[in-house]
Amino acid sequence: MSVVVLRSEQAFSDRLSAFTQAVDIRRADTDEDREAIFRLRYEAYLSEGAIEPNTGQRFSDRFDETENVWLFGVHFEGALVSSIRIHVVTAQFPESPTVETFADILLPELKAGRVIVDPSRFVADRVASRARPEIPYVTARIAVVAMQYFSADIGVVAVRNEHRAFYRKVFQFTPVAPPRKYHGLTKPLGLMMARQEEVRDRVLGAYPFLRSTLAERRHLFGPLADERFGKTGAEPEPEKIPATA
């Protein structure tokens, strides 16, 4: 790898770290915030032909209402620019869209006592994303924060084939199942997975912007996490993890 490429990657990493501090990540706890996210989803999916048009011009499903879900909006300069939905899946709280779609693969993991973080409905405003390519990275980072806070054993993601490279390069996800029909979308999604014990140190070492403080994790996922998942905040701080390439 040339020195020029290395410098370019470092510069982009620095931009990601700075942009992480520039955005406002908000849990969608109000009807107004949720509706804004559902409208953004509709616009994003419709523009890429992933859904059919509807008169309500919003897109949501029953997984937005489960007991183990968090909806997040990412705001930049006062505008909603992206959103992601996070399910924390356990034997006690087994509902999530990806677990249901790939039940033959993922239910045995839950029965073995593993904790799975399932990010879905990852959408971004097209104009904002073209102007600020950092947006997808900062949005996907929320799933990494969840994996750290809930001490997840496994991260999963359901994606189209053309998006695999992003998850493989940054998050060390590996394809494990070919595309299947996925809740409400016209385009099938395949399953990718990463066992956190195997990839965590490498991912956080290569991409420092993915690290988070315990205060940030609690801000994003409490108090529901404390009440339902028995969180104590005792997990090790990622700042103590050696920066290995």
Outline the fold blueprint.
Blueprint: H1 3-22, E1 24-27, H2 31-47, E2 69-76, E3 79-89, H3 97-101, H4 103-111, E4 116-124, H5 126-131, H6 135-149, E5 154-159, H7 164-171, E6 174-180, E7 189-195, H8 196-206, H9 214-221, H10 224-229
Parallel strand pairs: 4-5
Antiparallel strand pairs: 1-2, 2-3, 3-4, 5-7, 6-7
Give a written overview of the molecule.
This protein is α+β, with helices and mostly antiparallel strands. It has a single domain, classed as 3-Layer(aba) Sandwich (Aminopeptidase), CATH 3.40.630. It has helices at residues 3-22, 31-47, 97-101, 103-111, 126-131, 135-149, 164-171, 196-206, 214-221, 224-229, and strands at 24-27, 69-76, 79-89, 116-124, 154-159, 174-180, 189-195. It has a seven-stranded mixed β-sheet with strand order 1-2-3-4-5-7-6, with helices on both faces. α6 (135-149) crosses α9.
